[in-house]
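> call design_seq(struct)
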């Protein structure tokens, strides 16, 4: 009852072509090249996190995961094998059995070493369709075939688990490494330009500076692609400080809590009336500079704070009537924002019974918006911070906080 899988010409020895550490060194070098290939002005003009995500998409590794529940097989094939029988070779008729186990992850890792290697390296054929295992023999039983295939699959899974121990820390360190490279290079460029400006010589720029890099389309779930880089000189832009932005959001949060704790005072109010309560408390902190229904860009925004004739904060208030309400509100808010507006908020009032379900759907819907660049960061139970791309300039990113407020419904009386 011989198994002849090791002699199958369709098989190969897995995890034996190259060291995994060599591959990781190469990927670190690729990440450094992503940053290095940006021109100076393009680097300064592109949000750091966009470059970080681009490098991560290109350089991170995904250890394959076998999808054993989706295993399929080919029809048995008749084969003739030469076997030794009491010192002489004879031809034996038998059958070849073949199964394929699909997987998710990077195909190339099946050819790299693993830190867990017990016994001989498994033999199989690895390609885009999956891992194909082959066994040939005569008078084989179902139990014998199942035991053989299980032994090979277990050996493959053991080596993949060894790879995961090396790949996981590499992936975790990749974003911080790239972020540091980008920030250090940006800092160096700006410092050099400050020194150059202090010398007092006139600056003569070349008439044409060729593009040095056009980032590839990023492969996240939903995001706009990075824009083509240009030779336009970078100029720093004013922005609302993060601490001030958080202060404004806390004011709104505190007012929202008061609404939820005083149901009878707010249950019959419409959007514009609820908005006025936020304006009252914001004006108390910003000396009357918080206004409502102010013309800005392509429409009227609900809440606008101006400082020195420029907008520093914009917010929109809407009642939740389903996912489309949120999508329309996001489109409306993005239409209000000019190129200088980098921080905004969307306040969604809810009068539905199941507030928890509404918050969950709100988060999902905002994440699916075509201008959403990254998954949200949850700051409170009902407040989520997103990074959106500007409608008119994908290179400009907008910090947009989506907030849910549970407003009592008059019909609950």
């Amino acid at each position: 009852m011989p198994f002849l899988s090791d002699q199958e010409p369709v098989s190969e020895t897995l995890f034996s072509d190259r060291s995994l550490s060599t591959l990781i060194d190469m990927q670190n070098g690729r990440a450094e090249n992503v940053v290095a290939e940006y021109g100076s002005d393009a680097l300064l003009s592109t949000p750091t996190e966009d470059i970080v995500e681009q490098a991560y998409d290109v350089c991170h590794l995904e250890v394959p995961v076998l999808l054993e529940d989706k295993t399929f097989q080919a029809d048995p094939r008749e084969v003739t094998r030469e076997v030794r029988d009491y010192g002489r070779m004879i031809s034996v008729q038998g059958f070849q059995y073949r199964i394929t186990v699909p997987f998710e992850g990077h195909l190339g890792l099946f050819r790299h070493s693993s830190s867990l290697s017990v016994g001989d390296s498994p033999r199989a054929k690895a390609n885009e369709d999956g891992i194909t295992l082959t066994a040939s023999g005569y008078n084989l039983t179902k139990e014998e075939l199942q035991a053989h295939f299980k032994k090979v699959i277990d050996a493959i899974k053991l080596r993949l688990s060894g790879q995961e121990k090396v790949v996981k820390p590499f992936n975790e360190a990749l974003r911080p490494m790239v972020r540091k490279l980008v920030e250090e290079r940006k800092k160096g460029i700006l410092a050099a330009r400050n020194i150059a400006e202090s010398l007092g010589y006139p600056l003569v720029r070349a008439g044409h500076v060729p593009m040095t890099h056009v980032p590839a389309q990023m492969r996240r779930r939903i995001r706009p692609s990075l824009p083509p880089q240009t030779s336009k000189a970078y100029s720093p832009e004013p922005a609302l400080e993060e601490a001030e932005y958080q202060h404004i959001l806390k004011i709104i949060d505190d007012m929202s809590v008061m609404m939820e704790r005083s149901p009878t005072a707010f249950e019959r109010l419409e959007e514009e009336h609820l908005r006025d309560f936020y304006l009252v408390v914001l004006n108390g902190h910003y000396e009357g500079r918080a206004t409502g229904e102010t013309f800005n860009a392509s429409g009227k925004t609900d809440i606008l704070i101006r400082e020195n004739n420029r907008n520093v904060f914009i917010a929109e208030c809407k009642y939740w009537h389903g996912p489309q309400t949120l999508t329309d509100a996001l489109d409306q808010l993005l239409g209000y924002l000019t190129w200088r507006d980098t921080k905004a908020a969307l306040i969604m009032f809810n009068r539905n019974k199941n507030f928890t379900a509404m918050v969950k759907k709100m988060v999902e819907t905002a994440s699916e918006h075509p201008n959403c660049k990254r998954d949200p960061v949850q700051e409170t139970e009902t407040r989520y911070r997103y990074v959106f791309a500007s409608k008119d300039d994908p290179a400009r990113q907008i910090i947009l906080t989506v907030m849910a407020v549970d407003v009592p419904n008059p019909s609950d009386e």
